[in-house]
Amino acid sequence: MQIVINNIKMPVNHKIEDVLLAAQEFVRQQCIYADNFYIYRQSIDARHKKSIKYIYSVAAEVNNGAKILPNSNLQIISQNDEIKVESKKVFKKRPVVVGMGPCGLFTAYILTLSGNPPLIIERGGMVEERVKSVEEFWNSGKLNTESNVQFGEGGAGTFSDGKLNTGIKDKRQRFILKTFVRFGAPNDILYKSKPHIGTDKLRTVLINMRKYLLDNGCEIQFNTTLTSLKMRNGKVSEIELNNDKVIECDKLFLSIGHSSRDTYEMLYKAGVKIEAKPFAAGVRIEHKQEFISRSQYGVEWKALPPADYKLVYNGKDRSCYSFCMC
Ligand SMILES: Cc1cc2nc3c(=O)[nH]c(=O)nc-3n(C[C@H](O)[C@H](O)[C@H](O)COP(=O)(O)OP(=O)(O)OC[C@H]3O[C@@H](n4cnc5c(N)ncnc54)[C@H](O)[C@@H]3O)c2cc1C
């Protein structure tokens, strides 16, 4: 069984070992025998600029039978936080995943863990090739319509710094973060309040994930576009790739993102039910980092990581909020 010790306050300059020692001292005082301590969450409390503090939660293991009385500083981690995928072959024909952005990658990963490795098709190139076509576009303006900032292995956010924060609470989040760490993302994404993978590491994670999928029975076809599909009795029966090759398919996972307008048109014409969805429009605002850090942290700003902020406006008909910061 796992427990979490919350609300461990540390000064700006501290060592991680001191955080773990503080957690060990806390459980000792509670007469709990615990082991395998690790950082579970880290955030900064900058409300009082004269005494800014890091706030930690530390997790540890205790025996299953241990009597723990949870309170605001001590929690038991629910077993439901761990997602376990049972391996059981259920599909007679190999399923097909279209798109290799975050949605397609995780669909393929879960299918593989469950013993049903799919065929993955992706209209863009593998990330190493994609980097070249994107650089060419930035340098010369020459657009590769199939492999670019939106299309290709890793999907639309591959050329960002891989921010992982979300306003949504979902018990699968830790599973997602642990999967990224498994494939080479920094361990600190598991506990930082505003985690990000980093552009350079994001590509390595993609390459490692691809290798895992291939080693475990998936087939990947890059530069391959789903161009048509056939339905029989309201169910998909065949798909066409690159306006050419037709293959049988009865389990199709469409992970095609927002930008593939030709595919949406094709799906609509083929009789797939499509529903319009509301969208949000965004603008980019630039500030000097020093300005934000000074206003959030005061004189201590240099000793702390770059600060960010969040603004929310709730209007009568619409609201507006700042989404993320690089
Ligand atoms: C510049 C930028 C920066 C971003 N930064 C972040 C960030 O830091 N953090 C964050 O959480 N989100 C970020 N996002 C948003 C994030 O990228 C998207 O929410 C996410 O990529 C959506 O994942 P997806 O798999 O649904 O679709 P996508 O990532 O769009 O992937 C769809 C994939 O399907 C492929 N495809 C489409 N049609 C076909 C077809 N017919 N045949 C074969 N393949 C096809 C495409 O080539 C593409 O690779 C960013 C987006 C952009 C554009």
Q: CATH superfamily name of the largest domain?
A: FAD/NAD(P)-binding domain
Catalogue the ligands.
flavin-adenine dinucleotide
Q: Looking at the structure, what is the overall shape?
A: globular
Structural class: alpha/beta
Radius of gyration, in Å, reads 24 Å
Order of helices and strands: EHEEEEHEHHHEEEEEHHEE
- Count the helices. How many? 7
* Low-confidence blocks of residues: none
User: What can be said about the biggest beta sheet?
Assistant: 4 strands, antiparallel
Structural domain count: 3
The number of strands is 13
How far do the termini sit from each other?
37 Å
Strand content: 15-25%
Q: How much helicity do the residues have?
A: 25-40%
**CATH third-tier fold name of the largest domain:** FAD/NAD(P)-binding domain
Mean pLDDT over the residues: 92
Question: Strand sequence of the main sheet, in spatial order?
Answer: 2-3-1-4
CATH class of the largest domain: Alpha Beta
Using the 3D structure, state the CATH architecture of the largest domain. Answer: 3-Layer(bba) Sandwich
List the helices and strands and how they pair.
Elements: E1 2-10, H1 16-29, E2 34-45, E3 53-62, E4 74-76, E5 96-98, H2 102-113, E6 119-121, H3 127-140, H4 173-182, H5 199-215, E7 219-221, E8 226-232, E9 235-241, E10 245-248, E11 252-254, H6 261-269, H7 289-297, E12 312-314, E13 319-321
Parallel strand pairs: 5-6, 5-11, 6-7
Antiparallel strand pairs: 1-3, 1-4, 2-3, 8-9, 9-10, 12-13
The structure holds flavin-adenine dinucleotide (FAD).
